[in-house]
Amino acid sequence: MKFRKLLNLFGKKSCPGCNNSIRKFNQIEKSVSSSLSSIYSAPQGFEALSVDSYYCPICGANDRDRLILSYIQRNHTSHCSILEIAPSKAVRQQLVKNKFSYRCCDLFMHGVDDQCDITNMTCYADQSFDIVICSHVLEHIHDDSKAISEIARILKPNGQALILVPIPIGLQANLYDAAIEDSETRIKMYGQADHVRMYSRSGLTDLIKNSGLSLKTWTRSDDELAFEKMGLSSTSTLYIGIKQ
Length: 244
Hints:
- The chain is an alpha/beta fold.
- It has one domain (2-242): Rossmann fold (3-Layer(aba) Sandwich).
- 29% of the residues lie in helices and 21% in strands.
- The protein contains eight helices and eleven strands.
- The protein starts with a helix and ends with a strand.
- The relative contact order is 0.16.
């Protein structure tokens, strides 16, 4: 770790996952990049995927980790209570280190605070959290309307749901067919064997708004310098559902 920090001293980039200067973020693995090109619905790539600056060479935070952490660090204090669904190692470590009131949950992952189903989070009372992080989870869920309703239920008034899913650039409508169960077709249609849906931008925003949450986004136009320093793509977008 110390050696990697020395190699990146005086770099012009920065990583909110470890608060280090970075000379250059690492590219996504070639095997992953190659598989992305075969996804039927994403010939132009993905909205929030920075292929050439995917992960931090020091802490490993990927592009969506950096997007989420930078938003929280710029807009919230450690007095906030946060739930992260299907936690990222980089996000979890940084939020705990910064003394946020943090919990994480998942149905299958080991080492989480609570094991629960996102569509039925009975372990949490109404209005429990200021922030719920849901990054690359909803594409795994058949009943995504129920999942987003549960997120809305456990948010405090004015609480925020920070939501990311894979969104192909240019896709006009969601792709979803509950009858597709074989891995090969799912990979071709949705990108992974355990994905059941591919979202369009309008499909995700409608899902959020139909749950009763208001919607705002955080994009490069909100903080051009920060996005550049963090190596985020020009189309990277964080979707924020706000409970009124």
